[in-house]
Amino acid sequence: MNIGEIARRAGVSRSTVSYALSGRRSVSAQTKQRIQAVIDELGYRPNAAARALKEGRTRTLGLVIPPASLRLTDMQLGFVASVVEAAAHADLDVLLSPSGGDHDRSFERLISGRRVDGIILMEIRLEDERVTRLQQEGLPFVTIGHTAHPQGVCWVDIDYAELVARSVHHLADLGHRSIALLNRSAELVAAGYGPAHRAQAGFAEAVGRRGLRGIELPCADDPAAGEEWFEQLRERHPEVTAITTINEAALPGLQRGIERLHVAVPREMSIAGVAARHWAEGFRPQLTAADVPTGEMGAHAVELLLERIAAPTGAPRHLLLAPPISLRDSTGPARTD
Amino acid sequence: MNIGEIARRAGVSRSTVSYALSGRRSVSAQTKQRIQAVIDELGYRPNAAARALKEGRTRTLGLVIPPASLRLTDMQLGFVASVVEAAAHADLDVLLSPSGGDHDRSFERLISGRRVDGIILMEIRLEDERVTRLQQEGLPFVTIGHTAHPQGVCWVDIDYAELVARSVHHLADLGHRSIALLNRSAELVAAGYGPAHRAQAGFAEAVGRRGLRGIELPCADDPAAGEEWFEQLRERHPEVTAITTINEAALPGLQRGIERLHVAVPREMSIAGVAARHWAEGFRPQLTAADVPTGEMGAHAVELLLERIAAPTGAPRHLLLAPPISLRDSTGPARTD
DNA sequence: TTGTAGGCGTTATCAA
DNA sequence: TTGATAACGCCTACAA
To answer: Among chain B residues 35 through 54, which have CB within 7 angstroms of nucleic chain C?
Structure first.
């Protein structure tokens, strides 16, 4: 089924059908109606490839996700869902590319094959060759997270430094003097993963400013590691009365560790963090945390990308989100024994 | 950058470049080398739209996921990841369509716009209009899960009836006489969601055959509901000594409920289920469960779809997976007090 | 071994 | 208000 067939059945030329659909030229009401009737009857839709070839745009966005081998976190998942939804809302499709490195085949297909009009890049590293690759190709893109030198790049990110600092201040206000940071995994820190670095920075800054004792212990991104992390913390640093964390995946394990050692939250230990609302509310007691707005982030990323596609040479915009900390039940005054 | 430009720079015709790339005609080593040098220098790749238009295939698969508003379960997520990976392995891209109903715009774009060579449909209902829509369009597709009348359709599914029955038999063998089924939500059952129906059927059949007392209580698909479910169970059916479940999302809540009421597992209560390995191992104590092989399922679905695309008229294949139950720590002999 | 030319389905320019 | 036609970039049958 193609436009020629529609034209033939409606007794008009192909261009008239095309114009009737696009509205870029006036078509008599009568003709338009006849064409529409045929289209409805046959269920015609323009062939996407032909249209893309002619128009030079694909009406498709690319979303580069971490390789499937790495389990996606809840936060990342929420982000993928919101990007897809926001794109669908703009009548755009989303092409997925699971790739980490620069030389990934599907990543290369996406960009040099001109399969998409723009790209959203997740899980950016502080030094990220994919960014330079996209810049050299001149394909519009938006990153989630930002590189060490994000000038000239559109990005959306969570201000982990600010959020961790805020939770430290909140805990300090409650009288806590020894606070531990439950950061993302040592591997990620080593790989130059921005959130982990910035959490570190924000923690150090706030702890320094308030004259507190700050403890940092590495922890892998999974429940088992969280449980072990808590044991180690109690063993090595019994003076710690509060924890701040950005490691969502370790939360269930942290909870198990706390329960196993019979530590009362928040009476004996306060916990504040950065997490998707879903996780914060699933914690027991519910977690005082900055709720990461994954849904908004996806929508913002799509919005920024569409702007960039419309005006590739404009000044790049970026968004640094610092959602407020929602007070729940996991933080309270420091114990005074 | 297009094939003409490459041809010009290499001093050959466009067809020679095309043949050098496809290998469908012999090209002298010297010419081939010259062409390759130019391609490498300029980073040329065939335009996907032009190629799709000419060849009549897009080298893209469509994956229809549940709408973003519904939180994807871990199992679904694992499935998406494995489909994307399997597709990438075959040098295919994956286009995502978040849609529930038949008249969804992105779903329609996918199929009548010929944006994909085939489609994988997740979260099939017993009566699913998307299936009939795809059949009428004549687009190859594979479903995850199957409809009430799956004749002539390719599908991959988990044999929930068999797995639930097996877990009931396992529990009966351990001496349990009153067993509760923690099924998916009442809404899903009402909507004709296959796994929920088949779990029910398998449960009823096995319970009947072993002469047991079978309890069914509805439970929404989230942790809070799981916790409440367990309370209700203890209140209304204190005689129950074993639970079988396919409701992954309710597991964390079930666990909390068990801990809150200080019920010892498996001494006072045995639990067996169907769940992604990740969830089973995250449960405390680790859950005796049939581990849903999401990774394999995605790969199988892609494999079946590729077969179907290659031979659309062949006999439709299907796969009903019944992975063995992995014995872990949550099941034991019935208490005898 | 290589080149020429036609057509995939669409949109847009030019002409009527 | 409408129609004929060229062009997007690629692949391939045919010709040399």
So the answer is: 50, 53-54
- A4: Cβ–Cβ under 8 A, 6 or more apart, which residues? A14
Mean pLDDT of the region B284-311: 94
Quote the number of domains for chain B: 3
Q: Which nucleotides of C are covered by protein (CB under 7 A)?
A: 1-5, 7-13
Domain membership of residue A25 as a residue range: 3-55
CATH number at residue A10: 1.10.260.40
Segment holding B37, helix H or strand E: helix B29-42
- Condensed to tens digits (0 to 9), the pLDDT of residues B4-21 reads 999 999 999 999 999 999
Residue A18 lies in a domain: yes
C1' nearest to CA of A6: which nucleotide? C9
Q: Are residues B225 and B110 in the same domain?
A: no
Q: Does A327 reside within a domain?
A: no
Per-residue pLDDT of B222-270, as tens digits, reads: 888 999 999 999 999 999 999 999 999 899 899 989 988 999 999 999 9
Residues B110 and B80 in one domain: yes
CB contact under 8 A, B93 and A96: yes
Summarised one tens digit per residue, pLDDT across range B134-191 is 998 899 999 999 998 988 899 999 999 999 999 999 999 999 999 999 999 998 888 8
* B28 Cβ contact list (under 8 Å, min separation 6): none
Q: What is the pLDDT of residue A70?
A: 65
Question: Which of left, alpha, beta for B62 (phi over 0: left; psi -120 to 50: alpha)?
Answer: beta
> B16: which nucleotide lies closest, measuring CA to C1'?
C2
Among B157, B173, B206, residue whose Cα is nearest residue B288:
B173
Per-residue pLDDT tens digits for A37-67: 999 999 999 999 999 999 999 999 999 998 8
pLDDT at residue A337 is higher than 70:
no
Task: Encode pLDDT of B38-59 as tens digits.
Answer: 999 999 999 999 999 999 999 9
Interface test with B, best of A74, A106, A108 (most B CBs within 10 A): A106
Are the C-beta atoms of B62 and B109 separated by less than 8 Å?
A: no
Check whether residue B7 has its CB closer than 7 Å to nucleic acid strand D: no
B93 vs A114: CB contact, 8 Å cut-off?
no
Whether the CB-CB separation of A204 and A296 falls below 8 Å is answered with: no
Alpha helices in B113-159 (DSSP H): 129-137
**pLDDT at site B101:** 66
Q: Are residues B147 and B256 located together in one domain of the fold?
A: no
Supply the CATH number for residue B270's domain. Answer: 3.40.50.2300
